[in-house]
Amino acid sequence: MDAAFSAEQGEIRRTLREVISKRCGPDEVRAAVRTPDGHDTALWTALAEKLGLPGLALPEACGGVGCTAAELALGVEELGRALAPTPLLATAVLAAPLILALGTAEQRAAHLPRIAAGELTAALAVPGTALATALGLTGDNRGDWAGGGRAGGVQARPVDGAWRLYGQAEQVVDGHSAGLLVVAAHTGGFARSRTLLFLVREGAPGMVRARQTSLDETRTQARVELRDVDAELLGDGDADVPAALAAVGDVAATVVAAEAVGAAERALERTVEYVQQREQFGRAIGSFQAVKHRLADVYVQVQAARSAAYYAAWAAGAEAAGFGGQGAERAGGLALAQGLDALRTAASEAVQLHGGIGFTWEHEAHLYFKRASGDELLFGPVHRLRARAAERAGLFEPTQAEAEAQGEAEAQVESEAQVEAEVEAGEVG
Predict the structure, then answer these.
(1) N or C: which end of the chain has fewer CB within 10 A?
(2) Are 216 and 295 in contact (CB under 8 A)?
(3) How far apart are CA 314 and CA 339, in angstroms?
(4) Helices (H), 105-187
């Protein structure tokens, strides 16, 4: 692994930081989330037209730039510093890769160039609140989270050669304004139970979307109700949808981890600036040893999270290039757990060390704390992310020696039980 950034990667970071610092301050963020779209459409247009951010990780044949998850993570890290509300995560990280991986040639040609140009936003809608499960971040996604043929979830059924969807999704990131929805639905009943993905366009009859009041208002969410809605099957229906969702989930976890690192770093920077200015007992509170130790611990945690996120991004890029290993599949969830831990710690210390103003609406420190809490609600608690990564790594599986010892112990118990049974039978006789 080469830990050094290329000149192109450095340019992506520098250019984005310049744009974001000029157009996305705390006041601009609050104004953007109050708009009907939930984000600054002018900023989104600039990110798309001038920087090509929505198509950064899409191949050139689809109108994209042809970069990897590493470049996308670097870009999102800069957005995370300002908590910039954009549809990038929903569009370029969750929805577009599924269309690229599973869509037909006609579907890719119809949607991906428009996504790369910023003309079309998209969102992934999964039933209920099962986003983390659907992406394979907190458990096996081959279960019945899409509906399982029972009441609830989202059900898909063929009618006169077309597909119709009925159900509801609760946590659709940027789902209230997306021009295209990628909907996960259950079909096949109990005989051939499976999960498929469908495309639903904006304005489809029977679709009702409502923006939700969420803990983190900088990450807009919507409730989507599908009442016998016409839908287009994504791909040919024979693809392994759970595997595709898990692959997207690993990259999404990597990107969100990088975003959390950027937010944590900015929260730490603001706190350091404040403790150097605020005075108590005739001196800046940042000169007190206890404050120095607390901030030093946060700094170490942020740097550790950055290393984990960068490794996960490199591993995802290596996997896409065809020379990654098994570790590439497991790095995203662990990096996300590390990033969310770092962000929560940095935001908590920011609130504490800013004193009473740290949790008020007028100060931005509380926004960082809410981002950490909101991402845990969306993508899974930290302990479950780590447990799932440990499960996939086989940490809880016994070694060969342990399995042999267990087998011998079970055989011994069975033998003793058999002897006792024979003795008891003899006594009875």
Answers:
(1) C
(2) no
(3) 16
(4) 105-116, 131-134
Strand partners, 158: 163
- The DSSP result for 347-391, as a single string, is HHHHHHHTGGGGGSTTSSHHHHHHHHHHHHHHH--HHHHHHHHHH
Residue type, 88: L
User: Which residues have a Cβ under 8 Å from the Cβ of 265 and sit 6 or more positions away?
Assistant: 81, 302, 306, 346
Question: Rounded to 5 degrees, what angle do the CA atoms 195, 200, 201 make?
Answer: 165
Amino acid, res. 327: G
Alpha carbons 107 and 34: distance in angstroms, whole number: 33
For residues 173 and 123, is the Cβ–Cβ distance under 8 A? yes
Residue 222: how many other CB atoms lie within 10 Å: 23
For residue 42, give the nearest of 112, 118, 105 by alpha carbon.
118
C-alpha–C-alpha distance, residues 255 and 137, integer Å: 13
**Residues in Cβ contact with 343 at an 8 Å cutoff, skipping those fewer than 6 apart:** 260, 261, 263, 264, 267, 305, 368, 371, 372, 375
Integer angstrom CA distances of residue 85 from 90, 271, 371, 417: 11, 22, 11, 65
Place of tokens 């040919």: 236
d(CA 273, CA 354): 10
- How far is the CA of 338 from the CAs of 67, 252, 305, 309, 312, in angstroms? 25, 14, 5, 8, 11
Q: End-to-end alpha-carbon separation of the chain, Å?
A: 73
- Sequence-ordered alpha helix ranges (H) in 278-326: 289-321
Report the C-alpha gap between 269 and 15 in whole angstroms.
20
| This prediction's pTM | 0.88
- Residue 282 backbone class (left: φ over 0; alpha: ψ -120 to 50; beta: rest): left
